[in-house]
Design goal:
The chain is built from nine helices and 20 strands. The chain has 351 residues and is of the alpha+beta class. Its EC number is 1.3.1.98.
Amino acid sequence: MQVLHDAPLAPLTTFRLGGPAARLVTASTDAEVIAAVREADDSGTPLLVIGGGSNLVIGDKGFDGTALRIATRGVELRGTTLELAAGEVWTDAVARTVEAGLAGVECLAGIPGSAGATPIQNVGAYGQEVSSTITEVIAYDRRAGETVTLTNEECAFSYRHSRFKADPERYVVLRVRFELEAADGLSAPVKYAEAARALGVEPGDRVPLADARATVLKLRAGKGMVLDAEDHDTWSAGSFFTNPILTEEQFAAFRARVRERLGQDAEPPAYPAGEGRTKTSAAWLIDKAGFTKGYGTGPARISTKHTLALTNRGGATTEDLLALAREVVAGVREAFGVTLVNEPVTVGVGL
């Protein structure tokens, strides 16, 4: 277990932003993770858990406590059951499942970060979410002081949300178990229209696993959503805002605002979200509110490839980024009456 003091945290995030931690602990085994958590809890020291750093916005003043970087490794594949240590690189894990001929997460290729973070955010893209394949999450329960196993139902998954995100001070994810599908080398049914078009198939069709993964990687790269140190469009947290989910009344008011602003024939994106709710597109809202690709003049700007990504063009501070985010939120609210919610976790700062 490595321990550093006054340690830079910016290099541990995909934004490359944020001040130092008073103390940085890197744990390479579950036992080390638990020991570091217990030490912080017993001493009353604030604790920040870091995986791949791809969904994290750290304030410029840094973190006055213990930052715990989870660097555990371990991949176990038994038939169609996959178990990943929390510190495993998610993109590598997806590649392994494709090589093994197992379907269920192939459309989650290219998403940066660690395996342990996937259940927290209920990571999803291109018609797949990890909640559809996760069977169990093994975590350290800080309140009970013991390791627990939570079933899929107990994880309380919803859109970009989970029990872990709802109670961030309680659980530290150690391992994640998935149940995948052996479908003769074919993918799960392709659900996302954009992916289906790129693959030349109809939604609901299956395609070779490698084709599904390669197509998603190409689509993501075209939006700056695959990490590349030389490409500042990827110095981001991917999608900075979640897609709004509106009640019937809220959606009706939103549609009226859209038609008032864009014309009586204008129709906003709308997708069923269950229980009388409708999901719309944050990227569409941002673009139609006037924040187009590349928007901004400072060191933090909207990606030149995708309006949903806020980026560090080099030399930005966290405050630069937050100023841009606040401008976007205010502009969308003024234009359409919808308040965007940030997807990344913020530390020491907020919108």
